Amino acid sequence: MQRILRGSQREETARFLAFRSHWSYEAEFCNPARGNEKGGVEGEGGFFRRNHLVPVPVARDYAHLNELLREASQRDENRVVGERSLNVGAAMALEREHLSPLAKEGFDLAAVRFPVVNSSGCVKALTNFYSVPLAAGTEVEAKIHAAYVEIWHQGKCVARHERCFGRQQKVLDLDHYLETLERKPGALAGATALEQWRAQGRWPASYDRYWEVLKQREGKQAGTRAMIEVLLLGQQYGAARLRQAIEKALEVGCSDAAAVRYLLTADALKKTKPDAVELGALISYDRPQPTMAGYDQLLLNAPVAEVIQ
Fold it and tell me: Is the peptide bond before 55 cis (omega within 30 degrees of 0)?
């Protein structure tokens, strides 16, 4: 809402007006702090919270949490509310027959901003800063969704972050700084983006072990630069494959960025053995392999010197 007015009156935002116009419904608001005016909604919300959100579910991310909530909602369709004769699922199916058809196209709920990349490689979206792999001064389009933020440039999504609900926070992706760190490898160890990767579980212990192996072999600066080169491979082959390759390199005792690159491409380099071909009538032209038996017999029956002459 743009502004809460007296009683149930509201000044609606342009985005909300567009949303309800698209889905063809009218908005009806309650008085502030008067939950009793929508007791059925409050009661059902409380029931769902107590039965499906207590204790607090453990989820990997918002997508996993949404999947857990969807499964809980499906289980809830078998419940009968009060003294009603139909369960929730059957009543919902009956009610659906009286609803207007949905619009053919969806409605993008994202709030859109057009920030400029700052000197830290970030753009400001609402109250927080999100990293992008673009040069400072570049104007981008930021799409702010409920659970994530997307940064678009020239019709392409260049960055996607989980939305932060704090204020004045920096949400950084180490991938966006690797090319810069390649020129300044000494900054990697204390990088805030690396700390955030560690906290998110995106920097496994095997990365630290391999980094240490590279530093022991090539020296601190050159070894760190080699580690950055390895990390850049993740942008091309994906984080899961890169982790597999690094752990395989540790297992076989390899300590070189080229070894990780080879392990990432080894499957593509394997040549499959061709299937046997049936020769058919051509087998009549088959001839035995040549043999040196006659020459060996000659060597046995004559002096070596005579054979050479």
Answer: yes
Name the residue type at position 204: P
Residue tagged 């919300």 (tokens)? 45
**Tokens 């009806």 sit at which residue?**
28
Separation of first and last alpha carbons in the chain: 108
Q: Which of 146, 171, 196 is the last residue of a domain?
A: 171
CA distance 99 to 77: 19
Overall domain count for the chain: 3
Task: Please write the tens of the pLDDT for every residue from 290-300.
Answer: 888 777 777 77
Query: E strands within 145-297?
Result: 148-153, 156-162, 170-171
d(CA 19, CA 48): 26
Give the structural domain span for 117. Answer: 111-171
Measured CA to CA, the distance from residue 111 to residue 92 in angstroms comes to 31
pTM above 0.85, yes or no: no
Q: Are both 147 and 222 inside the same structural domain?
A: no
